[in-house]
């Protein structure tokens, strides 16, 4: 079957856009082909710094013919209706339509339309210009004489040529002819910018790849990455060293070169006094080079690996020398910053360094970094007993954790923040727990990053993330759609992972409430009595009483009666927004996390629907136990029965305008099945509560399974909506008891199935 080869050649494609552009081209073209009935066998996109290409294999030579039956008006209908039918169906006269009969509707006209499929090149010539004009580049430009016109083509950089061929392997392919802004498609391309001259005529994919490789272009991005990685490892091995692999840097470099040539340079060993991470950051950021490790010491070696985009006639000597000059200058700066910081930290006390953060704005609506650090320290100290950490040591660690942000090294290389805090803490002779917390309180920074496990680090990391979340919720800067400029989703997932992976027990509402209090107290209001009165109003908006007490205590501890009043007008709305919406946000993030681990999102919904479910570890354990229970026959049948009870209650409560609760009158239980069900609920209910109180969810589920048989029997033998209204109400209350029994475990209404 024929293949399609498309290449869009331009001045430059930035490395950061290449992967997304290749995927967009593949999806846009193949979706358009399938939409037009052209089903293919396979497709692969290619991208280099100068070209974006796509090969589609196994396309048919033409679209399939289509057959359509279009129903028209009745025989004898007005001429206007018949004329409209003829026009819509593309018929010259009504004689071209058939007359069919329907026993109820009588005779009517039917047009049987047969449409021949178009040749595939014709369809491709229609698709590709549309894709090019609407291509979703993050940034694009116009160029040339027509650049002032809004209809002129926009592209990432000036588009220079289009190659498009189509045909089977056994025949000479044809050029798919079309034009985009004066650029006509053809069958020619160009090789390497410096190592190749002139144009290259190609036929199909294999020919295109082979001829470009002969012209010093490796078109397959993955192959370029393999060449770079393997050659770099070989060079390192030849020197008795190890390559420090860097997937992100490898991805970036593969987008900068079409003909990768790997070389090795060196720098003065005196620079090895600088921490390895700073050396690596310097060389990586400024020169896009890999660093090497000495396996005998575990430290970096004074050599680096660079990747050139050409095979130089001098073997790369000049290229290496140029990189060495730049790296020498950058490492000199890094060494100066490192030595300056050591002197500063040795002579300036921590308290004095902290005061400098008072001049640094964290966010214009959330105050200074110093205010934030003090909030984090207070919250971390409060969390310390929960995670088994020493409160005073934890507070000291939190006050120190961000001190490296004001250092010279971190100012130049922000990516080593936290890590440098560990170095500086050790140089100052601080406890290892403080050094570890300085680095680890930022973690985890992604789904594959590790979580802190030391108690002090856990407390500081949780406090840091909770303060961020509460603060931005307070100023209504929550994530929307795909936008999350403050990485709040990552912060919430970080809290969840830290608590779950370290099996941290405790209600999330308590630290959230404490953080709310500290944010509000920071606003400094007028009279403590007025503030306390306003806090008491929160009890009227369905907030958890424990949260209210916690918030009241924080305010009582932090507010000075003489301070300025602006809390009064905002406290209720702010606390409500944070206390409810933020917990819902955590629930959503937990659902994402559990779903990725294989759990059902509806079970998470069902558990979170219960009041007070903000102990994340218990939520997960309850979800897991519920999932195992619902996988059994007892679980499936009880779910069906409980849903049936809930549906009946919903209908009857809406019709009667009342909410039926428990309080069954045993005297009115006439049928043996309803008596058995009431007895089972009465007997099992307290036992289920006891099992839940001791957090034995497996036992609670096993007890709940005891309701399966009496519930089944009840619905099989008993009519709920009895003619006797008193009997009907009593049976509805019995259904309410079923609902209450299952809701002690989860809200079964939210469970699918």
Describe the protein in words.
With 753 residues, the protein is α+β, with helices and mostly antiparallel strands. The protein has five domains: 3-61 and 119-214, Alpha-Beta Plaits, CATH 3.30.70; 66-115, no CATH class; 221-346, no CATH class; 349-443 and 453-479, Hypothetical protein af1432; 626-750, Isoleucyl-tRNA Synthetase, Domain 1 (Orthogonal Bundle). It is 51% helix and 12% strand. The chain is built from 27 helices and 18 strands. The strands form five sheets. Strands 1, 2, 3, 7, 8, 9 and 10 form a seven-stranded mixed β-sheet that branches. Strand 11 (188-190) and strand 12 (199-201) form a beta hairpin. Helix 14 packs parallel to helix 15, helix 23 packs across helix 26 (708-717) and helix 24 (672-693) packs antiparallel against helix 25. The radius of gyration is 35 Å and the shape is flat. It starts with a strand and ends in a 10-residue tail after the last helix. Residues 523-543 and 558-570 have low confidence and may be disordered.
CATH topology of the largest domain: Alpha-Beta Plaits
Number of domains: 5
Would you identify the CATH architecture of the largest domain? 2-Layer Sandwich
General form: flat
The biggest sheet amounts to: 7 strands, mixed
Amount of beta strand: 5-15%
CATH class designation of the largest domain: Alpha Beta
**What is the residue-averaged pLDDT?**
87
User: What are the low-pLDDT stretches, counting only 5+ consecutive residues below 50?
Assistant: 523-543, 558-570
Report the structural category.
alpha+beta
> Helix count, per DSSP?
27
Compute the gyration radius: what is it? 35 Å
Distance between the termini: 46 Å
Helix share, percent: 40-55%
β-strand number: 18
